[in-house]
Amino acid sequence: MSVRALASLSIVGALASVASAQVTNGGFEQPNTGFRTVSSGQTFGGWTNLGPGNIEFVQAVPNPNLPNLAFSAFEGQYWIDLVGTQQPSAISQTLTTLEPGSFYRINWAQAGNVWGGNFAFTMQVLWNGIVVAENTQTHGGNNGQFMNWVERSVIVQANLENDLNVLTFRATTGANSRGPALDAVSITLVPAPGAAAMLGLGTLLAARRRR
């Protein structure tokens, strides 16, 4: 097989992996039924609340009791409060479209419920039950226009044994209906060095063909 054919196959394979790597409802915009409290053990919008308390799908719309709530989302109209009205809790989703052994970058936006005084909100990210990231951010000020979202990411490896992988976001601090805030969750393939080189070669070959 020619180098050009190999490069083309590598490009097709890499693009297929990218296309298949996705998080269901990573922006929490579905089912778009308004503010929703989700109890422990309940699955809603593609995510399961692992408890021990409830979590909330927060809709960023005007609310007289929450100043500038309408401006609070990182993207779209919804975000997650991982405390809800009880205690720090966790949400998870099982991903079934990843290539075993491949590396992926988990991306998310993190903040905290600002309607109150400054508070240090801590959130962990777990991959197949293992903590792969933990970040603490202080938020407060009673103004949804200043959520001060931070974009974060971590690289993980897909399960070597099968294509089942569990992504979890877990709050470890929060109280009084205020917890870590989560939005814009996504996953992208991290090409292996060899694959990246082949992709570069494929791009060069494509450029030559256009001349």
Query: Spans of 5+ residues with little confidence (pLDDT < 50)?
Result: 1-19, 194-211
Q: SSE order, as H and E?
A: HEEEEEEEEEEEEH
Strand arrangement in the largest pleated sheet:
1-4-5-12-7-10
Level-2 CATH architecture: Sandwich
**CATH homologous superfamily title:** Galactose-binding domain-like
The helix content is 10-25%
Explain what the structure shows.
The structure is a single chain. This protein has 211 residues and is α+β, with helices and mostly antiparallel strands. It has a single domain (21-188), classed as Galactose-binding domain-like (Jelly Rolls), CATH 2.60.120.260. Helix content is 17%, strand content 38%. The chain is built from 2 helices and 12 strands; from the N terminus they run αββββββββββββα. It has helices at residues 3-20, 193-210, and strands at 36-38, 43-44, 47-51, 55-59, 78-81, 90-95, 103-112, 119-127, 130-139, 150-157, 165-171, 180-190. Strands 1-4-5-12-7-10 form a 6-stranded antiparallel beta sheet. The longest helix has 18 residues, at 3-20. The protein is globular, with a radius of gyration of 20 Å. The relative contact order is 0.22.
